[in-house]
Design goal:
405 residues, N-(1-d-carboxylethyl)-l-norvaline Dehydrogenase, domain 2, 2 domains, 11 strands, 54% helix, binds NADP nicotinamide-adenine-dinucleotide phosphate
Length: 405
């Protein structure tokens, strides 16, 4: 979902975040006092009914809808090694996901090789991570020729650009793996029309490649979506679940290529990034225009959200959050949530339409394959970094204890 350059930049900042303690700033939230006052703040179980398990597949009731979920525990390392004993996993591309998934596969003991263009930034990074040229690091064509399972982890724009060269190498017997449904689902635009005689599967970790790696090293697993686009061998579903576990997934949620890509493009443009950035900017600008200082505007808009409230919502849900804040905050927040929802829902419907009809894909492919893409991208990032809100944020963050010398 993120461009290569930004995902590289993210690697270091996410690393810092992972190691930094969460700082509890002064806030209107007081979970403890709410608990003492007898509010119903006990976190609820994530699922409302117990697992029903059949041969490694679990059906879980998510708020009344039963869904299929696979679990890492059903694929211990020995089973993975046995399952993939005759396979060579050729991981093409070594950006955010290539790095995370590749290192996890290697640590799991599987026969994995990396294919990237020689002398590119990824080649150097792969070497720094211990991949050895001629042994398990090759140029793209050579890696594909050696691989039985071709894991296409090039950027989405690059998947489309390189497809004419890659497609003829995907001969019968190989398996094609993606981490996003983008290329095959929008094949009219991307031109990625997969050969008819191979299995085509997807495991999309729901997080950055850095998180895929960090969670694996902590002995945990990331949530991933898994899907089958084409099942020629009759084994595609089993294979993608095994691969998903091997790359570092904990729970694997069954979906389709279409649903994965539609929800992913929609989410990142909405609550995950675009929508939330728009909301931050709108709230901050109003505070500034009404005479509040940059630090006050930033603290009330971003800092308190990301450092205090969002982690609590993430851990326990919105009902917990409402129960854990002051009565004043709760009344106002519940009232205004309805107004925001009503105003924003038509925007979200427009966004979904724009994703589903391919407009977002066309825009992304057109923009990201322009020759001056890098320049435009750098200019846009510099403009965002230069917004007052994010300059103020830099100063606020520098005051966090972990950033003090
Ligand atoms: N990033 C995420 O958070 C995330 C999360 C879930 C799924 N995904 C999916 O995972 C896949 C990989 O995404 P990513 O973010 O890991 O990619 P990325 O960081 O953008 O990696 C790009 C890779 O593509 C290579 N590349 C770019 N242009 C190329 C070209 N013209 N020819 C050959 N190689 C080229 C780069 O090599 P050079 O260094 O040589 O340029 C690099 O190795 C995508 O389908 C993406 O949607 C990503």
């Amino acid at each position: 979902m993120a461009a290569r350059q930004s995902s590289r930049a993210l690697r270091s900042s996410v690393k810092q975040l992972a190691s930094a303690p969460v700082v509890q700033r002064r806030t209107f939230v007081s979970a403890l006092s709410a608990a003492r006052a007898g509010f119903a703040v006990a976190p609820k179980a994530a699922v409302s009914s117990p697992f029903q398990q059949t041969r490694g597949i679990k059906t879980i009731d998510f708020a009344g809808t039963k869904e299929t979920v696979y679990e890492r525990d059903d694929w211990p390392r020995e089973k993975l090694l046995e399952y993939f004993k005759d396979d060579t996993l050729a991981l093409i591309g070594y950006g955010s996901q290539g790095h995370g998934q590749g290192l996890n596969l290697r640590d799991n003991g599987l026969n994995v090789i990396v294919g990237v263009r020689k002398n590119g930034a990824s080649w150097k990074e792969a070497e720094q991570d211990g991949w050895i040229p001629g042994k398990n690091l090759f140029d793209i064509d050579e890696a594909i020729s050696k691989g039985t399972i071709i894991m296409n982890l090039l950027s989405d724009a690059a998947q489309s650009e390189t497809w004419p060269a890659i497609k003829p190498q995907l001969v019968k017997g190989k398996t094609l793996y993606f981490s996003h449904g983008f290329s095959p689902v929008f094949k009219d635009l991307t031109k990625v029309d997969v050969p008819k005689d191979i299995d085509v599967i997807l495991c999309a970790p729901k997080g950055s490649g850095r998180t895929v790696r960090t969670l694996f090293r902590e002995g945990r697993g990331i949530n991933s979506s898994v899907a089958v686009y084409q099942d020629v061998t009759g084994k595609a579903e089993e294979k993608v679940v095994a691969l998903g576990v091997a790359v570092g997934s904990g729970y694997l949620y069954k979906t389709t290529f279409e649903k994965e890509v539609w929800s992913d493009l929609y989410g990142e443009r909405g609550c995950l990034m675009g929508g939330i950035h728009g909301m931050f900017l709108a709230q901050y600008e109003v505070l500034r225009e009404r005479g509040h200082s940059p630090s006050e505007a930033f603290n009330e808009t971003v800092e308190e959200a990301t450092q205090s409230l969002y982690p609590l919502i993430g851990a326990n849900g919105m009902d917990y959050m409402y129960a854990a804040c002051s009565t004043t905050a709760r009344r106002g927040a519940i009232d205004w949530s309805k107004r925001f929802k009503d105003i924003l829902k038509p925007v979200f419907n427009d966004l979904y339409d724009s994703v589903k009809d391919g407009s977002e894909t066309a825009r992304s492919l057109e923009y990201n394959s322009r020759p001056d893409y890098r320049e435009l991208y750098n200019k846009e990032m510099a403009e965002i970094a230069d917004l007052e809100i994010w300059r103020a944020g830099k100063a606020v963050r520098s005051l966090r204890p972990e950033n003090q010398k």
